[in-house]
Every structure is written in structure tokens, then in C-alpha cells.
Design a protein that fits this description.
binds adenosine-5'-triphosphate, 10 helices, 35% helix, globular, four-stranded antiparallel beta sheet, alpha/beta, 235 residues
Length: 235
């Protein structure tokens, strides 16, 4: 992938109150690329996604998205530029139906999936359109969380551990969905602890340790040297 960077993160630091969690991270994401953030619990992967979206108290450095600086912008402004965030907890509204959950976020820009395209991409959701959010399985909730941001016209998707807590067969389905989105041209940053899952779908991997980028590998480099990566993850 030789495309120009869509997202360029330079010397990013971030804080929760007085506590500094990210310490000068730099990496970029090319258009159409699927990049994972890997690393141990508490390394700062989620905080990196939250920093891109402007959901931390303080951040410094630069996050350039298609030429626009995100540091200093508010979350709603960042979303409007075409970045969709799928948090780890999925944030499905339990009292709303699948359909209501899906159609809740405003369509912020052109180019989002139509209802038909969405239901074609996620046939399970169509079958469950009138079910209550909480009555869904974990896998269906994850699909719903991803589908919800596709309506908004986002072209960069930030997905936080979509495989978490799901059975292997469901993880496989989510992986296929993510690969399909990549094939459709979405650019994806995926936080992932599950290496077996990450290596199936990704172009490159950014290894995060103590709020720092300690390595960046192509998927081929990861395949060729699993020992190196496992040592980072302590597995
Ligand atoms: P995990 O997979 O466990 O979520 P992670 O790599 O995503 O790990 P983060 O969630 O980004 O890690 O956490 C990075 C550090 O920031 C950790 O030390 C964590 O304890 C701390 N932290 C996370 N959220 C907050 C918060 N709301 N307030 C204060 N500290 C926080």
C-alpha cells in the first residue's frame, strides 16, 4: 500500500486529569489501509482511539486527518469530518430496537450506506430489525455497532476490540465483515488483543507499550517473526 497517509499522528500525548497516558506517539494510516493497534492491557490503545476522537481531557501533538488538524477540535466536529468510532462497550441502547439504534446517529456527510445497503451487508440485523437492543447476542450487538457508523458517511473507522468476548465462530464472521469493509475502500484502525484475528485482516500493526509506539510491522513481518510480537504481548 503506497497510498498517501489519510491520518498522520505526530508526537501525540494525552492525559486523563493529571495522569499522562500517551507519551509522544507517532504513526500514520494510509488510505484504504487496515492497521491494528496491538499491545498489553493498559498499554494505551483505547486512549489512542479516544484521542483521535477528542474524548480525552487533554492532548498535545498533531493528528492530521486529510489535511485537517484534529487537536483542538471537539468530538462532534471530528465525527463530521468522516471518522466513525465504535467503542469497546459497543454502546447499544438497550431500550431501543435494532432499527432505532441503527437510525439514531445523524447522517453527517454524503456517501453513507443506504438502509438497503446496510441490511444487505448485515442480513442478520434485518431479521432482527424490531428486536430490542439487549436481546441481541454479543456478535449481533457488535455488528449493529459497526453498521451504525456506516450510515453516517464515515470513511475512517476506529474499531475497539470487536472480537472481545465473542465465540470463535462469531469472531470469524466479524473478521469477514471487516475484510469486506476494507475491500469496499474503508480505512480501518482496529484495536485488537487477539493476534490470530489481527493477522488475518491487517496490513500493518502498530505495537503500543506504556503509551508509546515501540514497533511498526507489516503483516508479512509479523508472520515472519511471531516471536518478536509475542514478546511484546507477553504471550
Ligand atoms: P485495554 O485493552 O485494557 O483497554 P488499552 O491498551 O486500551 O488497554 P487504555 O484503556 O488506553 O489501554 O488505558 C491506558 C492507561 O490509561 C491505563 O493505565 C489505564 O489505567 C488508564 N486509563 C484509562 N482510562 C482512564 C480514565 N478514564 N481515567 C484515568 N485513567 C484511565
Amino acid at each position: 500500500l503506497n497510498a498517501a497517509p489519510m491520518l498522520k499522528i505526530d508526537n501525540l500525548s494525552a492525559w486523563y486529569a493529571e495522569s499522562k497516558v500517551l507519551h509522544g506517539m507517532s504513526f500514520d494510516v494510509r488510505e484504504g489501509e487496515l492497521l491494528t493497534l496491538i499491545g498489553r492491557n493498559g498499554a494505551g490503545k483505547t486512549t489512542t482511539l479516544r484521542s483521535i476522537m477528542g474524548i480525552v481531557q487533554k492532548r498535545t501533538g498533531s493528528i492530521n486527518f486529510n489535511g485537517t488538524e484534529l487537536v483542538g477540535k471537539r468530538t462532534f466536529q471530528i465525527a463530521r469530518l468522516g471518522i466513525g468510532y465504535c467503542p469497546e462497550e459497543r454502546a447499544i441502547f438497550s431500550s431501543l430496537s435494532v432499527q432505532e439504534n441503527l437510525f439514531l446517529p445523524p447522517v453527517l456527510r454524503e456517501g453513507g450506506m443506504t438502509d438497503e445497503q446496510l441490511y444487505a451487508t448485515f442480513p442478520n440485523l434485518k431479521a432482527r430489525a424490531n428486536s430490542q437492543g439487549t436481546k441481541l447476542s454479543g456478535g449481533e450487538q457488535q455488528m449493529l455497532a459497526i453498521a451504525r457508523i456506516l450510515r453516517t458517511g464515515s470513511r475512517l473507522l476506529l474499531l475497539d476490540e470487536p472480537s472481545e468476548g465473542l465465540a470463535p465462530v462469531v469472531v470469524k464472521e466479524i473478521g469477514e465483515t471487516i475484510q469486506r469493509l476494507k475491500a469496499q475502500g474503508f480505512t480501518i484502525v482496529l484495536v485488537e488483543q487477539n493476534l490470530r484475528f489481527a493477522r488475518l485482516v491487517a496490513d500493518r500493526h502498530v505495537v503500543v507499550e506504556n503509551g508509546r509506539v515501540v514497533d511498526i510491522l507489516t503483516n508479512a513481518e509479523l508472520e515472519a517473526d511471531m516471536g518478536r510480537v509475542k514478546s511484546y504481548l507477553g504471550v
